[in-house]
Design goal:
Radius of gyration: 30 Å
Shape: elongated
Helix content: 40-55%
CATH architecture of the domain at 17-145 and 408-446 and 498-519: Orthogonal Bundle
CATH superfamily of the domain at 17-145 and 408-446 and 498-519: GroEL-like equatorial domain
Bound molecules: adenosine-5'-diphosphate, magnesium ion
Oligomer: single chain
CATH class of the domain at 17-145 and 408-446 and 498-519: Mainly Alpha
Structural class: alpha+beta
Number of strands: 21
Number of helices: 16
Length: 548
């Protein structure tokens, strides 16, 4: 390397920035805390919303941690790791994203204090690990059973998950979600199995959230293709076709030389004959409804209409799959291969006007294990946020059923785990005890934040909450954000799945441990980051690479 050999040992490319030791930890913790603080105020029913405006000026208004973080463009690696926490939580459970991120931020904040007291990061990591394992154990201990027959509880899980996201309509949506899930759930060895693909969410702007509906079957955001077709077919026999009902245009440039008008007529007749033949095939198979993934030629439409067949074109692939499942049909690629055995069944297929737009409803399907949730709302922002709320709620209810366990929220379960962790810490002793106690305190960020959103004094509230949990029968005491008092979360039916809480602990403690173990940040290779390089030396950037 053409570099000054008398310099200190240089093993980094030019322009690279390096931060080591406590400074590195401090920066990572600072960033992680900032990310957590960005979503903290959205926690719970009294949480606030965030408005995010992207580069193109598109606006998103959301209360959902995962959504907010994924829309913010976060650059720093520590910040990105926090975003990952939200993503993992969203993928694994579909709810509890804010909780996970806020706990991670709080774990790091408490760790910072320990670092200031000269406790080595490896001790903190060890203590945190023990605490996380114990916390999950305690959660499982205090959790209660739930099964498919507990309909009211399932609805309340959905409602707990949605409160704060859709101001009104949580009750109605909760009912729909409970119905949708209990309907598509199957039981295997006494455990509920839920295939979320069987619930299709369709959004439509217009009306209000309360107009949302559960449809026993599939809703297509399409219209019947030809006005001469029936808009309603009962006892429908449905053909699913994934190729175009059109004459294929030749792939190579082809010239057809026509020398007299008769020939032209013969040519057109031929085309018409082929299309007519396709329609005849559909009719012979006994289909009364055709749902086509591609286009349908005008002439074919005309003959289908003449036969009284209802047809829809350009149906989405995912809808075709759902339709095949719901109606028991087989998707056919060549119309000429269609037979009666390929047809699916539905009690009724009809076109309905929803806020001025036509949609086709395929209802009363053979396999009732497929349903659609039609989410409505006054404006696009409302519908989008309602859809996110529904997504979270569906995740929460199915997570509760998958594991078969629930906990009570409002910060009550976190307070209980914190209380029991402190007892556990005493049995460990030494410096790790301090780390475990810090972990316990970090978990209390949940009741503390809920108290803040309700306008309660966070410190007084925590003191009172701790004393409730140290007394008998205090396990389910948490924050009532509406009355701004301590209250029984069980009595108030604030119910959450065990899995939301254990997953949040797992992801939050993992990211905290990972960040604590870092004592060296090396950023930039100097290749693209011009500013760090003195002018005149620019040409050397290209020679970068480690020079060890
Ligand atoms: P997350 O993204 O973590 O799910 P939420 O904004 O949905 O964040 O808030 C979840 C928190 O709000 C949980 O701790 C839950 O117990 C609490 N919560 C939900 N409903 C209530 C309620 N009615 N009263 C108090 N706390 C509630
Ligand atoms: Mg939630």
């Amino acid at each position: 390397m053409a570099q000054d050999q008398n310099q200190q040992v240089v093993f980094l490319p030019e322009g690279a920035r390096r931060t080591r030791g406590r400074d590195a930890q401090r920066i990572n913790i600072l960033i992680a805390k900032a990310v957590a603080n960005a979503v903290k105020s959205t926690l719970g029913p009294k949480g606030m919303d965030k408005m995010i405006v992207d580069d193109l000026g598109d606006v998103i208004i959301s209360n959902d941690g995962a959504t907010i973080l994924s829309e913010m463009s976060i650059d720093h690696p520590a910040g990105k790791m926090m975003v990952e926490v939200a993503k993992t939580q969203d993928d694994e459970v579909g709810d509890g994203t804010t909780t996970a991120v806020v706990i991670a931020g709080s774990l790091l904040e408490k760790a910072e204090k320990l670092l200031d007291d000269e406790i080595h990061p490896s001790i903190i990591v060890k203590g945190y690990r023990q605490a996380a394992a114990k916390a999950k154990e305690i959660y499982a201990d205090i959790a209660e059973d739930i099964s498919l027959s507990d309909k009211l509880l399932l609805k309340q899980i959905a409602m707990t998950s949605m409160t704060g996201k859709s101001a009104e309509g949580a009750e109605e949506l909760g009912e729909l979600i409970m119905k949708a899930i209990t309907q598509i759930a199957t039981e295997e060895n006494g455990k509920a199995v839920i295939e979320l693909d069987n619930i299709k969410i369709e959004k439509k702007v217009g009306g209000s959230i309360k107009d949302s509906a559960l449809i026993q079957g599939i809703v297509l955001d399409k219209e019947v293709v030809h006005s001469g077709m029936p808009s309603k077919v009962e006892n429908a026999k449905i053909a699913l076709i994934d190729s175009a009902m059109e004459i294929k245009s030749p792939e190579t440039d082809t010239k057809v030389q026509i020398s007299d008008p008769d020939q032209l007529q013969a040519f057109l007749d031929q085309e018409e004959k082929i299309l007519r033949g396709m329609v005849q095939k559909v009719k012979d198979a006994g289909a009364t409804v055709v749902l086509c993934q591609k286009g349908i030629d005008d002439i074919a439409q005309h003959y289908l209409a003449k036969e009284g067949i209802l047809a829809v074109r350009r149906v989405k692939k995912s809808d075709m799959d759902a339709l095949a499942k719901a109606t028991n049909a087989r998707v056919v690629s060549r119309v000429n291969d269609l037979t009666s055995a390929d047809l699916g069944k539905a009690a009724i297929v009809q076109e309905k006007k929803i806020s001025g737009d036509d949609m086709v409803f395929v209802e009363g399907c053979k396999n009732p294990k497929s349903v659609s949730l039609l989410v409505r709302g006054g404006t696009e922002h409302v519908v989008d946020e309602a859809e996110r709320a529904v997504h979270d709620a569906i995740g929460a209810v199915s997570a509760a059923l998958n594991v078969g366990k629930i906990l009570y929220g409002g910060g009550s379960c976190e307070a209980e785990v914190a209380f029991k962790l402190r007892d556990y810490a005493k049995t460990i002793g030494g410096r790790e005890q301090l780390a475990i106690e810090a972990f316990a305190e970090a978990l209390e960020v949940i009741p503390r934040t809920l108290a803040e959103t309700a306008g309660m004094d966070p410190i007084d509230t925590l003191v009172a909450l701790r004393s409730k949990h140290s007394a008998k029968g205090g396990i389910t005491i948490g924050i009532n954000v509406y009355s701004a008092k301590l209250d029984d979360a069980k009595k108030n039916k604030i119910i959450e799945p065990l899995k939301v809480k254990t997953q949040a602990i797992t992801s939050a403690s993992e990211v905290a441990e990972m960040l604590l173990r870092i004592d060296d940040i090396i950023a930039g290779t100097g290749k693209s980051r011009g500013p760090a390089m003195p002018p005149g030396m620019g040409g050397m950037g290209g020679m970068g690479g480690m020079d060890m």
